[in-house]
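Researcher: Quick one. two chains, 228 residues in total.
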Amino acid sequence: ETGVTQSPTHLIKTRGQQVTLRCSSQSGHNTVSWYQQALGQGPQFIFQYYREEENGRGNFPPRFSGLQFPNYSSELNVNALELDDSALYLCASSPTGQGAYEQYFGPGTRLTVT
Amino acid sequence: AQKVTQAQTEISVVEKEDVTLDCVYETRDTTYYLFWYKQPPSGELVFLIRRNSFDEQNEISGRYSWNFQKSTSSFNFTITASQVVDSAVYFCALSEASGQNFVFGPGTRLSVLP
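Model:
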């Protein structure tokens, strides 16, 4: 069974640029969630996708957007990057969007905005 | 709004000591789920336990045990006979029944010294 994978591992961008982060769900999981974890803090929920549709969203501006593909992999896009967007971005998959099942996390993408 | 508080920012213990990590939550939902995750230095969040709001039985898994008390809105985590490999940041999390919104606490950094 393949776990959750994320790419790239690290990324450095300049303020104002756009970035796309990628996530492959664990086999058999159709729900994916994205989190932002600033240094020394707990993960903050960005949004969740279930069957290719957004299924819930946290308190993040519209410049944070996502996609889920038919194979349940997912992308997180961030436009007009700001310095405060520097963080570890975590992707998590779970077996279904219908219920609060445990989430399995990927290793994260460390984004640095300069 | 849902909220998770982990009052202990950092804890240091000597190997073989018992340690309890506190978690207090707030929610208006009658049905909800509580979780504990471990984040070792490698950064990947590891699922430890899920508990629903209707199940107040304490649970033991090896050296780990969890004490859920709905009356005090607490879900504490005890490690018995701690080991150096237990050193990590531990997060308590709360989810509404639909699973659409996970709220993580700020985490407790546990250092187990040899």
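The mean pLDDT of chain B is 92.
Researcher: Thanks, that's what I needed.
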